[in-house]
Amino acid sequence: MRLPQSLLLLAAAGSAVQASSDKPARPRGLGPEFAKFYQDSTTFTCISNPSVKIPFSAVNDDYCDCPDGSDEPGTSACAHISRNSPLTVADRPGNSDLDTALALPGFYCKNKGHRPSYVPFQRINDGICDYEECCDGSDEWARVGGTKCEDRCKEIGKQWRKQEEQNQKSMTTALRKKKELLVDAGRQKQEIEDHIAVLEAEVQGAELKEQNLEADLKLAQEQDSKVVRTGKGKGKVSALSNLAKGRVDELRNALIDVRHQRDEAHERVKELEDILAKFKVEYNPNFNDEGVKRAVRSYEDYAARDQGTEGANGVLDRDLDEIAKTDGEDSGINWEHWENEEDGCNDSDLVYKLAAYLPPSLVSFIEDKVISVKGFLEEKGILPKAGEESSSESKAVTQARDALKAAQDSVTSLKNKLRDQRADLEQDYGPNSIFRALRGVCITQDAGEYTYEHCFLDSTKQNQRKGGNSVSMGKFSNVGTTSVEEVNTAGEVVNVEKMTIEYNRGQSCWNGPNRSTKVILECGEENKILKTAEEEKCVYSMLVTSPAACAGGEEAGNGAPRSKDEL
Amino acid sequence: MARSLPAPRWAMLLSLLILLGCIVVPGLAVKHKDFKTCEQSGFCKRNRAYADNASSQGISWSSPYELDPATIHFTDGVLTGVIYKTTTANEKVRLPLTVSFLESGAARIVVDEEKRMKGDIAMRHGSQANKKRYDETEKWAIVGGLEVSKSATLNAQTETGFTNILYGPGDKFQAIVRHAPFGVEFQRDGETHVQLNHQGFLNMEHWRPKVDDKDGESGEDESTWWEETFGGNTDSKPRGPESVALDITFPGYNHVFGIPEHADSLSLKETRGGSGNHENPYRLYNSDVFEYELESPMTLYGAIPLMQAHRKNSTVGVFWLNAAETWIDIVKSTASSNPLALGARPKTDTQTHWISESGQIDLFVFLGPSPNDISKTYGELTGYTQLPQQFAIGYHQCRWNYVTDEDVKEVNAKFDKYQIPYDVIWLDLEYTDDRKYFTWDSLTFPDPKGMQQKLDETERKLVVLIDPHIKNADKYFVSEELRSKKLAVLNKDGEIYDGWCWPGSSNWVDCFNPAAQAWWATLHKFDKFKGSLQNLFIWNDMNEPSVFNGPDMTMPKDNLHYGNWEHRDIHNVNGLTLLDATYKAMLERKKGEVRRPFILTRSYYSGAQRVSAMWTGDNQATWEHLGASLPMVLTNGIAGFPFAGADVGGFFHNPDKDLLTRWYQTGIWYPFFRAHAHIDTRRREPYLISEPQRSYIAQAIRLRYQLMPAWYTAFHEASVNGTPIVRPQYYMFPEDEQGFATDDQLYLGSTGLLVKPVVQQNTYTADVYISDDEKYYDYFDFTVYQGAGKKHTVPAPEEKVPVLIQGGHIIPRKDRPRRSTGLMRWDPYTLVVTLDKNSEAEGTLYVDDGETFDYERGAYIHRRFNYRESVLSSEDIGTKGPKTAEYLKTMAGVTVERVVIVDPPAEWKTKNSVTVIEDGAKSASTASLAFYEQEGSKASYVVVKNPNVSIGKAWRIEF
């Protein structure tokens, strides 16, 4: 964590004001820390290239002499010394092989009444008052084109100090909040550790219970096997008939259900096809969405293939209608006939005869189609698997078995809980586990047509303001860091490390990746979304302030509990 | 067990989606079926067949068009007469002819049809369409140059059967009008350069009633006469066949250029098949071509029917003033050389065949003799490039879309943070409320004024998209006014035409109607277009017009415009009418605040250069498209519309960093320099690119800004004499045959800067072709390249765009990087001088306020710099006006801070000062000079420090 920049600048400001008060006038635009290079009043030695010496009169003569630009602290004459410039050999005669970097950070605005600041050289005398950096208007000293920048430092400084005071307060509050978060996070962590201890004991107890019940079941089974049980049907045919009837009813019901599911699925497919057909007609080829185009083409192929099944379905449906009718004298099997039948033939005859009474289509359907369809459905987990065994057993055994099952379930459940809790403990919740305290806290931001939502360590969402449609931009993945570019007044890029919380596996994009969000955290008093941007298709970044991202506060954190696995 | 779980429907959906998703990705290609080939275009097919028939008959073919000598009159530079067309039924059709000889040296040939002129025809289907052949293209395209020559005379020495007219400068031009068959030859200095109807392809399909059952009687194929269906749309063709066609031959000319817009080479290819040739004619029918293909004669968004023919030391041209769909066939015919004539090379004639669906024959013939002369004369007719506001030449940052006003402000701030200059940020379609133009989306752009004010702080501008299709919606004031005021384009039945475009169901404003133009102007007023400020400018897109559900992606041809002209008649000029309306609207949005408008257009016609800039439409992020942008921009330049550019980075798809870098290095040489990207692409603003490419791109953009004075001067030159802003090799060296087809390098104005952008992947050198034997100096390190008629290999590492400076030039620059062009206004100049073989150099500079029309009243600086006999001087070449003195006063503090002389005389080594004499100064002063020697092939140079002379004054620097 870095100190907020404003604090650093404040510190610099104090010393600068002092320095400027008791020294002879420095060259225009020169910061006090560089004054030592400008002491010799006859010759000036370029700061980064001491081999280049020029008469002191060439300092601030609005002409760039030094390869590092140090002779022009007060003009824009050397602003072109930058790796962004198309330099020719004549731009830095004889020195074009040297590094292109300015020795000075910019034009120094004294900003009396406010804090001093550097403004990039490219903004000097361009006709624009850059009050943000240069409230005293000294950047436009040449008054090009009649530009006059009045000194606004009094007003801006006052405002700034007020703001700064507020920032200080805010920072204090933020740190206080951070401490609270740390305490909270510590407490939550402790709770989990406690919970783990409790769970561990519970698992032990449950396992013991399980062992006892296993023994009980064994005992009950042994007793049960001694009891001889007899069937209760009148005869074999009747018994078989009953079984068959039950079976056929089951199959018929299964068939009806499957058929119903099929019809529903057909309707869905039809609906989907209609959507796609309409989509194909109405899509705008100019949008050039590869995904759209691919989908349209694939749909065309699909539509071309999808022919000739209608007729077959008609025949099939007639058969199915037939099968679906309730059994009776006119259709299907007349079970009454069988139920009253005495045993007159052997089992195989029976099966044969039974089949003879079935409509031929039913036989083949039950055997080939329904079973295979059901098998498929079972395999896919759409239908539950049939019970492995259905033989009857004694009540005692059943009870023992149920008890054991319950005990086993309890052990599994406890173990799962324990595993979850341990995993949670090992999960990275950021420094000092601070985000533990923010988990599930949700913040939103209205931006353009959306309201963005960030629930810490849970998810990010994009909610449409018109229409209310909500899209997941990612589920919590991990806490991390990222390098963010910042640019200083000399136009140099500096990389700054920032804390992040990453979310991925959000709703997938049409022809794109699953949405993902990188939340970049900055120190702030409130948990607040500052900005959400789509960096590229369906890859979002969210700038969020939070006290949790502020530096400091840990040591004084009221004895925030620490544990060995923390960073 | 028979209980079923509710079937998870998502499983079905999922499998369907998987099914849809797993099909192979097809390659990108233009939808050929959406655009016609000649074979699919009735009148093109008929005229090609007519030409084939004529050719196959050889010398026995006689064109059935005869000028009746008894009808010929010649007075005051205008020849009139009547051409009789003998039909297959042996009827005579009267076709009035007018040939005007213009003061500018151009000749204009107009042929019309008497019956149509008199309205003596019957329309089919009860159509209300105008009976005349469309004769108003000139109303939109032509603004001057029609003064008839007083000195043109009949040549007394004329054979029978001919009428000869002497005209042009010093009567050096002659038109030889052959009576039977009708034809014209144009001569310059006794030599024939242009021949009309030489091949006998002249064809004017006269009006005839439809006779239903005479099939086969005439022996003509009538299948495309009365009705044509394409892309599900049927064209009712109420006037039947009415095409006009003419062959134009350029004897001895091997190269023809022009007739944009096509994604093809600068030197046009043959179009009747054969190896390396096209199969179809070049087509001009402004269309929104999706993912256009390269090296194709296929039509694109704009049309300029101006063709230049070029051979060694001679350039001539023709301008086919017709706004209907037009096809142009090109054949190069090489006569076998006479074996007895030793050393004589075989002579190549370029034969062209111009075919338009309707309208008059209205043709201008230019006899050059230089490319400059064509630019000048064509510009007198159609107008010169508008001198744009200074910002318009800066860098434009565009994307579909910047999504909120905050987004815009952030992009703006990022450019400053990374110190990369830019001038304009753009808003595509999505800023509007539901695609209703002249409105803002209240959620995404709640504060448009605040956004524009922020941009204005650094003199930056905003450009927003305004298209001619108006969402057909209630409670949308623009739509309501359009309909209630009856200002929309009508369908063939006279009802408001409804088509499909961005907003869905839409109507089109008919800018042919003066009332529509006046109404359009009201929409742009600050109080009507709420939220718009003075720094907002306009992008007119989709003005072909693009209609998603129309034939050829545009309107049905039988739609009706103001004056009951069919869309067929006016199609190609349609886009220009919108620009014309927008230009007038933008001139004065608030009373008393007159500013130069800036409009970007996609569709255009001759004349659009007066009011707009153009870009080459929806290109792709490929190296091939990068390469194709050069000939396209060059072609537009020589066709009188030089304010042109291609989307930097490529519109569709994501360019990699190398391609993007090279594209910026190329794009800075487009007169119109804008980066743009499709909505599905990753963001690619220059500051987002990682190093080192970010610096390379920044350097390229800053190079553009450094040369801004040279660019503005080149624009000024274009605005007064029509010269291209970037120029191809043949234009600079009309005598060097080797360079005629060169279209991968360019010259910036008259600066002597020769640029050869790298447009191939993994390529780190450039072979620059040099025509003459002057020394050329590398822009960055002054390496010398010399040797005429050959290619020179220039290093081109990724950070470098190969630029050479021809000896003999003085280039004005501004070296201080600023945030925008406006902020460079007060910066001092650097002058870079390269000496020619005679140790001389010359250059010009034009400066004004870059914003208002005050330059028309003298508020500008126009200087010529000369270096001769060791003296560099600045002379005034402007004309004083009422505002001159005032302007010069404001510019008094703007000086020259540095003079660099490349390759100076060796004896200057000992020199260390120069004498500076400024007009009005009491005495001469001195400035220091330093001599820098370089090793190897790099030239030495001197730098004069701070001569401190005012840019607006006369002065001398004596070395």
Which overall shape of chain B is indicated by the principal axes computed on the Cα atoms? globular
Q: Give the low-pLDDT segments of chain A.
A: 1-22, 556-567
Strand order within the widest beta sheet of chain A: 5-6-7-8-9-10-12-11
Into which percentage range does the β-strand content of chain A fall? 5-15%
Q: Care to count the β-strands of chain A?
A: 12
Number of strands of chain B: 55
Coiled coil (chain A): 182-223, 248-282, 397-428
Protein name (chain A): Glucosidase 2 subunit beta
Keywords (chain A): Coiled coil, Disulfide bond, Endoplasmic reticulum, Signal
InterPro entries (chain A): Gtb1-like, LDL_receptor-like_sf, Man6P_isomerase_rcpt-bd_dom_sf, MRH_dom, PRKCSH, PRKCSH_N
Walk me through what this model shows.
The complex is a heterodimer of chains A (567) and B (959). By secondary structure, chain A is an alpha+beta fold. In chain A, 41% of the residues lie in helices and 15% in strands. Chain A has helices at residues 5-21, 153-224, 236-282, 290-305, 310-324, 335-339, 347-357, 360-379, 395-426, and strands spanning 43-45, 53-55, 107-109, 117-119, 442-447, 450-455, 459-464, 470-487, 493-504, 516-523, 528-536, 539-546. In chain A, strand 7 and strand 8 (470-487) form a beta hairpin. In chain A, helix 2 (153-224) runs antiparallel to helix 9. The longest helix of chain A is centred in the first third of the chain and has 72 residues, at 153-224. Chain A is elongated and about 130 Å long. The relative contact order of chain A is 0.09. With 959 residues, chain B is α+β, with helices and mostly antiparallel strands. Chain B contains 16 helices and 55 strands. In chain B, the strands form ten sheets. In chain B, strands 6, 7, 8, 9, 10, 11, 14, 16, 19 and 20 form a ten-stranded antiparallel beta sheet that branches. Chain B has a ten-stranded mixed beta sheet with strand order 46-47-51-54-53-52-55-50-49-48. In chain B, helix 6 (405-417) runs parallel beside helix 7 and helix 12 packs parallel to helix 13 (693-706). The N and C termini of chain B lie far apart (108 Å).
